[in-house]
Each structure stands twice: as structure tokens, then as C-alpha cells.
């Protein structure tokens, strides 16, 4: 294996047009600048430079991809081989003109190499960028010093601190590339190289330039710092990127390089860089799904999808329709009543119109939606997504109808966030074709799709749902069937603890502040107000926790075998549903208002509530808020792993990063637990459980205890501590 890799990884050398040396970066699949490639490039470049017959050099990438940057896997080990900084310096100092022929992508170290070249020719479909910041790093092979010397400081700063990838035409506008072609970029680069032989190169060496600055550069940089602080949600890499770019303004190139290295080393050893790089690979690992039956992404084919249907045109159904159409799949959108159909149609068409403008989609996209009240029209579709209310009997009624109306091999999906997929499948004649697709609102924007299999779901149905996720540019994660699946089952405990904290003495502002300082874009109470408190209220009613269908037994503050907080129910009963009614956990200037302010009524109400129920108020500090909200959620993650509802901690983490805005620089809840240290999570859970024995979800899971007893092994090895089988899946 090593030999095959070694043979495939090289900077291949050939001659073109007599005097042009062509060096092809070859390291499949994306030509990363791994140790082997750097070694080979070092030799090959020297050879080209030394050959008197070679008058110019062109660097390109094999298989239509210039270069995906440094090999991220190498960041975890010790660096060896020639440094990229030195290689790029060799390129820039070469007396022969060097031209980069960029096809596919030039990212990170790949773009840094291209910036070391004297000219850059790109294919029109190529992308360039510095995604290092998204990996917790900065461009550290001179990129943070060369880019600001090449383009405006504003653009360089924006690209380096956000990691935004740009198209070749935009790169041309900014001045990053010299030419864009829709023909073969390599052929064009060879012709170009021939034309510039003998021309002076000094002005093309970026390290010799100074950074062009706006008039009041100091205030510009101060404002940039304030803005990055505000938007980075606690991530340190964007701030380090700014410092590096700042050095390009105030220091010589060599001093700037030193600063860049210093900052890079600091970032590389940070937990945030480890978390972000873990997240990069975790995201890709979700594509490699498996089921307990042994079916996997490798041995299962997806069905082709020519046409789909969406049933129910509420908020979710509308978003799903738009997401499908954006993915190029025509949709028949169905509602039960004319009024709802018309309302749904109006909103969907206007959403498509916006998408059409934003993404410059063709007009045909708007003609891909058909609207009907007639379920019989669904005969012709390959896949149906049901998106009606979260109500089991309604969903069963629809699936029964679908079973007789749709073709026998149509995939039947339910967009549910909590309900039992198998119970829904049980009313159909094709339970193997029933699969859960849990979209997140707004469904045409949010990246996550939980794909849920029941015990009778076929691998083909899962493969088709995963294929569809990819087609919609979403991150699909395959999970088993249980109440709330992975995301909501864990989230329930996070929310529950927040309510308990209010009962015990905290206020919403305090809880939200701690969660926002941790890196969530919004605290739990702001999120609850935004989505509407009645959403959770309805779920509680459906689960028999409150309302007319409340299961007998329990008491006001104890239900379903544990402590229960009725605070949310009380607010809903009074009509305080959040932003839409102008009052919830916070007060808003009017119904539909967006700016949360102090809610005096709630504060008085909480005092009275505590007094009425004899709750001893205590000071709730920041640590307690964070630990009480996060650790029970993490604990449930361990239960979920143990039950094999999620195949790996990576799957859970990706669900949280993409569906619940978990700060990516903390990796996800399971990675965060491994960073905090499993013994600490275990101790704290034990501690809080001792104080609150009536909250059973604080009791540490046996997997967590087992991992700690085994010395807290690295997250990648947790699978070895989980028993293989779960008879319910
Ligand atoms: C002193 C230090 C000097 C220099 C420092 C430089 C810093 C850097 O360069 S950091 C790296 C910057 N580059 C990136 O962040 C690019 C990351 N990759 C991507 O964005 C995408 O993979 C892509 C290149 C746009 C290709 O996308 P796609 O075609 O969709 O394929 P994927 O499924 O994403 O990837 C295929 C396969 O390749 C692996 N991979 C991709 N990039 C890297 C990488 N830079 N390092 C290591 N591995 C990489 C990816 O994990 C996939 O692997 P599988 O095993 O097939 O899942």
C-alpha cells in the first residue's frame, strides 16, 4: 500500500514545446502537498531550474486539480521533509519564469504555491481560497504575507479571515490570477510561458512588494479587529489571521514570515485547531454510512430520482420543496385544502424567485413545481416527502393512502423530528421503502439531514435518501430509530436543564449569555422565543406530558419518572409564545418583534413560582450553567452510542455542528467531552446527580464510565468499547 502511494505521489516532470518544463503535482485524490510530494517537488524543481534547455516552468495538478493544500493529516504529527515555505521561496526566486496552471482548485498551501509563481492562469471553473481559518490555522507558507501585497488589504483580510473560496472570474477581478480561460488552462499556461521568456521578473516576486494600504490603515485594522471579535464566536484563528495580515503592513516580508510562523505554531497546538480538523474529517466520514445489517455506502446503490412529491406545505414542506427543486428534481406539491395550497404556492414561488436571483438559476427551475390537491397524481413520482404536523395518527393516515396510490417501488419519506418511523411504516405495504428524513428549518438553507432507518427500512431506501442529501448539498447522517433520534433526543436534555436552572434561581439572560460566550449564536431561551414556545408544548402534549392527553400519575413538578419543569407550559397557556406574540422568555416591542429585552413579568413570575413551590433559590454560576446544560446532553450522546443509534461519535458531532449550531471550533459535543476530559465530565455528572437525584438523566451512562475506567481512550477508538449488537435496530 505504501509503495503504491509512494509511486502515485510525485511531482511528475515532462517537457513541452521544447523549452518548457511542466511539473505536475500528483497525489490523488486532491494533490495535497504531503511529505512525499514536497520531497519530489524539491528534486523536480531543481532539475528544471538546472536544465539549460528549460527556459520557463509551468506547474499544474494531475487530474484537473491544481492542489488541495497541505495534507491535513500531517498536522497531527511531526513535520519532516522540505518545508513548503522553502519550496515556495525557491519558486519565487527562480530566474526562469514560473507559471501556475490552475484547474479545479488551488486551496491553502496550493494557493500559496501559486502565489510564489510569477504568473497564474486559471480555468474559469477553478476555485481558489485560503480555507486554513476553517481548520483553526492560518496560511503559513507565506500566504498571509503575499496575498496582501498582491490585492487590496480589504479583500486579502476578508479572504484570509473567513476562508471564503472564490471562483476564478472573481479571483481575476481581485487580481489574484492574471488570466482566466474556458479552454485548457495548462495549454494556455504553456503558450503564455513561452511568450514571457526573457522578460524581467522582479516586479512579479510578491515578497519584494510592499502592502498597498488604505489611507487610515490603523483605524481600518482596529475596525476589522472589532468586527472579527464580534463574529468569530470565540474562535481564535480569525484573530491570528488578522495579526498576520497586520504584520504584512508594518513589517518587512521576512519579519512577516516569522510572525506568520509564530502564530501558526500557537494555533497548531490549540484545541480549536484539533477540533476543526477533526470536524473536517468527521463531515466526510458521515458519507461512509453503515447499518447494523452490514449494508454500507459501498455495497448499496441509490435509486435514480426523476420526480418527487412533498405533502404538506407548511414551513417545513415549503423549504423542502425549494430544496428539491434547487437540486434539480421536479416536485408535485400537495395540500389538503385549497386555501393552504394557494398560500403554500405563493410562498414557494417567491422563495424560488429569490433563489433564482441569488444563484442565477435558469428560469426552468421555477417551472419545476406543480401544485395539486389530488394525491392520485403521486403515481408518477419516485419519492415522496411527507411534511405534515408532528401527529402520529395523521401521518399514519397519509402513509396508508400513499401505500395504495404510489408506485410499488416509490421511496416514502417522513419528515419527522421525533416520531417512530417503524410505526409509520407499519401501515404501508412497503415498509422497507419507508425512511425518515429529518430536515432542519429553514429546510432549503440548513445543511443537516438526519436520515433515519427503522428495523424494516431497506439499505436502498437509506442509500437513496443519502444520495438525495448530497444532491441537495446537505450533510446527511444515517441514524437509528428512537424518540427524537440523535439530535432532538440530546437537545431535550439541554433545554430541560435550562428550565431547571430558571427554577433554581437563574434568569434567561444569564443562561443565554453563558451559552453565547461558549460560542452558540443564540442562547436556548432566545432560540425558544424565535421558534415559538408552542412547538415544544405540542411535542410535550403529544408525548402525554401535559395537556388533555396527560398520562395520569406524577405531580406538578414530577412526570414520566423524573423531575419536570412546567414553566414552558405555563407561559404557553398564558399565550406567551415568544417573538410571534411579543412575549416569551423575553419581551419584544411588538408581536413579531426581533429584539429581546428584559421581561419584568417573567422575573416576578419566577420569584412567585419558586415561593409557591418551596424552591430554595441558589446562586447559579457560569460553570454550573455550562456544565448543567452541556454534560447531560453529552451523557445522552454516550447512551446513543451505546445503543448504536449513532454509528460513531463523529456522526453525533456533525449533527450538532450542522443542525444545532454547536460551535465548530469545539468539534461537537462528543469531541468537546474528549477535550474537557472524560473523567471531569463523569465527576461533574456524578456531583450534580447526587444533588438532584430526581433528575435521572444526570446519572452517567455506562459507556462513559467504561471509557473512564479504561483510561479515557482517544475518541477514534471509542467504537471498540461498544457492543456490536442492538436487537431493536
Ligand atoms: C508550515 C505550514 C505550511 C503550509 C500550511 C498550509 C495549510 C493548508 O494548506 S491547510 C489545507 C487547506 N486545504 C483545505 O482546507 C482543502 C480541504 N479540502 C477540501 O476542501 C475538499 O476536499 C476539496 C479539495 C475541495 C475536494 O472536495 P471533494 O471533491 O468534494 O472531495 P472530498 O470528499 O472533500 O475529499 C476527497 C478526499 O480527500 C481528502 N482530503 C481533501 N483535502 C485534504 C487535505 N487538504 N488533506 C488531507 N486530506 C484531504 C478528504 O478527506 C477525502 O478523503 P476520503 O478518505 O475520501 O474521505
Automatic annotation (TrEMBL):
A Pfam family per the record: 3HCDH
Localization (cell): Peroxisome
Gene3D superfamilies: 1.10.1040.50, 2-enoyl-CoA Hydratase, Chain A, domain 1 (3.90.226.10), NAD(P)-binding Rossmann-like Domain (3.40.50.720)
Entry EC number(s): 1.1.1.35, 4.2.1.17, 5.3.3.8
Single GO MF descriptor: delta(3)-delta(2)-enoyl-CoA isomerase activity
Pathway(s) where this gene product acts: Lipid metabolism; fatty acid beta-oxidation
The reaction(s) this protein catalyses: (2E)-hexadecenedioyl-CoA + H2O = (3S)-hydroxyhexadecanedioyl-CoA; (3E)-decenoyl-CoA = (2E)-decenoyl-CoA; (3S)-hydroxyhexanoyl-CoA = (2E)-hexenoyl-CoA + H2O; (2S,3S)-3-hydroxy-2-methylbutanoyl-CoA = (2E)-2-methylbut-2-enoyl-CoA + H2O
InterPro entries: 3-OHacyl-CoA_DH_NAD-bd, 3HC_DH_C, 6-PGluconate_DH-like_C_sf, ClpP/crotonase-like_dom_sf, Enoyl-CoA_hyd/isom_CS, Enoyl-CoA_hydra/iso, NAD(P)-bd_dom_sf
GO cellular component, one term: peroxisome
Domain 3-hydroxyacyl-CoA dehydrogenase C-terminal: 484-588, 625-712
UniProt cross-references to CDD domains, sorted A to Z: crotonase-like
Domain 3-hydroxyacyl-CoA dehydrogenase NAD binding: 307-481
Alphabetical GO biological process terms: fatty acid beta-oxidation
Keywords: Fatty acid metabolism, Isomerase, Lipid metabolism, Lyase, Multifunctional enzyme, NAD, Oxidoreductase, Peroxisome
Assembly, per entry: Monomer.
PANTHER family associated with the record: 3-HYDROXYACYL-COA DEHYROGENASE (PTHR23309), PEROXISOMAL BIFUNCTIONAL ENZYME (PTHR23309:SF49)
Family: In the N-terminal section; belongs to the enoyl-CoA hydratase/isomerase family.
Protein name: Peroxisomal bifunctional enzyme
Lineage: Eukaryota, Metazoa, Chordata, Craniata, Vertebrata
Amino acid at each position: 500500500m505504501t509503495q503504491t502511494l509512494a509511486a502515485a505521489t510525485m511531482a511528475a516532470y515532462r517537457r513541452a514545446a521544447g523549452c518548457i518544463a511542466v511539473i505536475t503535482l500528483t497525489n490523488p485524490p486532491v494533490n495535497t502537498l504531503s511529505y512525499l510530494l514536497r520531497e519530489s517537488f524539491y528534486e523536480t524543481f531543481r532539475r528544471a531550474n538546472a536544465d539549460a534547455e528549460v527556459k520557463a516552468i509551468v506547474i499544474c495538478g494531475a487530474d484537473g486539480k491544481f492542489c488541495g493544500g497541505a495534507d491535513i493529516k500531517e498536522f497531527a504529527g511531526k513535520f519532516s521533509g522540505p518545508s513548503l515555505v522553502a519550496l515556495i521561496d525557491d519558486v519565487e526566486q527562480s530566474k526562469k519564469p514560473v507559471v501556475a496552471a490552475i484547474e479545479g482548485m488551488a486551496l491553502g498551501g496550493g494557493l500559496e504555491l501559486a502565489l510564489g509563481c510569477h504568473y497564474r492562469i486559471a480555468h474559469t471553473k477553478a476555485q481558489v481560497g485560503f480555507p486554513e481559518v476553517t481548520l483553526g490555522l492560518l496560511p503559513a507558507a507565506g500566504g498571509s504575507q503575499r496575498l496582501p501585497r498582491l490585492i487590496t488589504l480589504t479583500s486579502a483580510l476578508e479572504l484570509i479571515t473567513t476562508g471564503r473560496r472564490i471562483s476564478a472570474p472573481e479571483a481575476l477581478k481581485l487580481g489574484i490570477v492574471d488570466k482566466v480561460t474556458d479552454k485548457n488552462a495548462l495549454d494556455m499556461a504553456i503558450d503564455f510561458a513561452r511568450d514571457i521568456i526573457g522578460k524581467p521578473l522582479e516586479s512579479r516576486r510578491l515578497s519584494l512588494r510592499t502592502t498597498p494600504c488604505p489611507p487610515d490603515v490603523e483605524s481600518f485594522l482596529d475596525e476589522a479587529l472589532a468586527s472579527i471579535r464580534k463574529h468569530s464566536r470565540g474562535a481564535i484563528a480569525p484573530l491570528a489571521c488578522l495579526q498576520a495580515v497586520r504584520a504584512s503592513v508594518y513589517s518587512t516580508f521576512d519579519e512577516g514570515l516569522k510572525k506568520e510562523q509564530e502564530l501558526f505554531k500557537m494555533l497548531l497546538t490549540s484545541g480549536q485547531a484539533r477540533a476543526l480538523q477533526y470536524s473536517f474529517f468527521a463531515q466526510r466520514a458521515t458519507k461512509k454510512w453503515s447499518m447494523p445489517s452490514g449494508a454500507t455506502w459501498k455495497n448499496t446503490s441509490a435509486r435514480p430520482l426523476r420526480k418527487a412529491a412533498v405533502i404538506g406545505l407548511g414551513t417545513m414542506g415549503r423549504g423542502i420543496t425549494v430544496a428539491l427543486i434547487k437540486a434539480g428534481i421536479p416536485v408535485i406539491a400537495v395540500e389538503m385544502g385549497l386555501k393552504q395550497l394557494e398560500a403554500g404556492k405563493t410562498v414557494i414561488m417567491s422563495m424560488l424567485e429569490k433563489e433564482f436571483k441569488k444563484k442565477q438559476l435558469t428560469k426552468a427551475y421555477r417551472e419545476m413545481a406543480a401544485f395539486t390537491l389530488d394525491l392520485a397524481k403521486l403515481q408518477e413520482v419516485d419519492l415522496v416527502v411527507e411534511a405534515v404536523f408532528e401527529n402520529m395518527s395523521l401521518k399514519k393516515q397519509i402513509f396508508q393512502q400513499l401505500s395504495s396510490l404510489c408506485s410499488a417501488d416509490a421511496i416514502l419519506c417522513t419528515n419527522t423530528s421525533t416520531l417512530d418511523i417503524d410505526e409509520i411504516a407499519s401501515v404501508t405495504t412497503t415498509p422497507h421503502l419507508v425512511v425518515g428524513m429529518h430536515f432542519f428549518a429553514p429546510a432549503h438553507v440548513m445543511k443537516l439531514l438526519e436520515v433515519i432507518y427503522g428495523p424494516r427500512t431497506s439499505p436502498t431506501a437509506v442509500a437513496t435518501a443519502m444520495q438525495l442529501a448530497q444532491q441537495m448539498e446537505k450533510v446527511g447522517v444515517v441514524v437509528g430509530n428512537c424518540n427524537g433520534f440523535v439530535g432532538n433526543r440530546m437537545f431535550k436534555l439541554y433545554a430541560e436543564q435550562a428550565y431547571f436552572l430558571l427554577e433554581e434561581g437563574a434568569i434567561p439572560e444569564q443562561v443565554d449569555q453563558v451559552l453565547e460566550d461558549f460560542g452558540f449564536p443564540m442562547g436556548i431561551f432566545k432560540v425558544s422565543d424565535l421558534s415559538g414556545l408552542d412547538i415544544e408544548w405540542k411535542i410535550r402534549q403529544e408525548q402525554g406530558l401535559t395537556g388533555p392527553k396527560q398520562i395520569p400519575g406524577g405531580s406538578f413538578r414530577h412526570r414520566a419518572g423524573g423531575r419536570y419543569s412546567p414553566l414552558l407550559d405555563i407561559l404557553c397557556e398564558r399565550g406567551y409564545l415568544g417573538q410571534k406574540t411579543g412575549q416569551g422568555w423575553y419581551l419584544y416591542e411588538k408581536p413579531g418583534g426581533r429584539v429581546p429585552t428584559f421581561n419584568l413579568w417573567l422575573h416576578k413570575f419566577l420569584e412567585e413560582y419558586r415561593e409557591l413551590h418551596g424552591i430554595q433559590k441558589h446562586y447559579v454560576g457560569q460553570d454550573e450553567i455550562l456544565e448543567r446544560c452541556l454534560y447531560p446532553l453529552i451523557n445522552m450522546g454516550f447512551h446513543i452510542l451505546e445503543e448504536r443509534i449513532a454509528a460513531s461519535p463523529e456522526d453525533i458531532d456533525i449533527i450538532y455542528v450542522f443542525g444545532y449550531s454547536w460551535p465548530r471550533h469545539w468539534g461537537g459535543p462528543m469531541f468537546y467531552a474528549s477535550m474537557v476530559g472524560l473523567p471531569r465530565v463523569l465527576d461533574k455528572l456524578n456531583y450534580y446527580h447526587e444533588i438532584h437525584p430526581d433528575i435521572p438523566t444526570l446519572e452517567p451512562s455506562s459507556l462513559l464510565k467504561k471509557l473512564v475506567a479504561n483510561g479515557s481512550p482517544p475518541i477514534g477508538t471509542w467504537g471498540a468499547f461498544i457492543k456490536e449488537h442492538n436487537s431493536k435496530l
